[in-house]
Specification:
It contains seven helices and twelve strands. Strand 11 and strand 12 form a beta hairpin.
Length: about 260
Amino acid sequence: GRNHEGYQEIFAAAVSDLRRKIAASKDPKELPEYLGAGDRGSVFRVEIAGMAYAIKLFKKRSEQEYEIPILKRIRGIRHAAQLVAYSLEDQAVIMEVLPGVPIDKLSNDPPFLYSDEEMVQLMRTVAELYEAGVILDRGNGGNILYDPEVGFSVLDPYLQFEGGRPLAKHLLSLDGVFEKRDYPSIPSKSKMDDDGNITYRYTKEGKKALAKEYRTVLATRVQFFRLLERVYPKLLAEWRSEREEYRQMPRMVLTDYQERT
């Protein structure tokens, strides 16, 4: 088919050359082409005829067979990984290179906040992915990139299971994404009492660093929930209503049981 012909003509030689370099290296992460590793494979940047591409090499064919349908589902969604070609035989997928730095590698010195437009852009991307039956891996900061010119880009999404969490919950969990930074480690001394409770004591400088981190987190949360309320008011209202019904359910069941007995 067209994919096979395009892969063989344009990318097969580059993949073969890349695998030779990996085999000859002590550590593939030290190669200049290395971009990073996800849950399912490692990604390398190559240039072919003046165009940059991301080549993902998979550890197992089953992992590649899982990812290809996801990439096909999200074709055309801006700010998400875009499939160019693939080869099951070479266990390789070719994608467009997405701009940016993993959000957990961004320094918070000096402290910064994302713009309203950037936050809304990621919310809308998550909503588009959800409509395609795909969800964001929020826990892995390396799968979300940030570029000051382009905003956020998403890598390695997952298939949404039937009956999974509603969109509102996926949107609400983005507060943890927007808070992620490469915060400096804060020196402290810990002490455990007889009940197993741990108390931390920070130095003067440690308290200042902690206060700076908390200010960033708090400002981000206030900004995020204000935007969420503005952009998805109906969705949030429905989710709050469902949550309230769920919270009332045990009491309703208990009351009904008491009335019957």
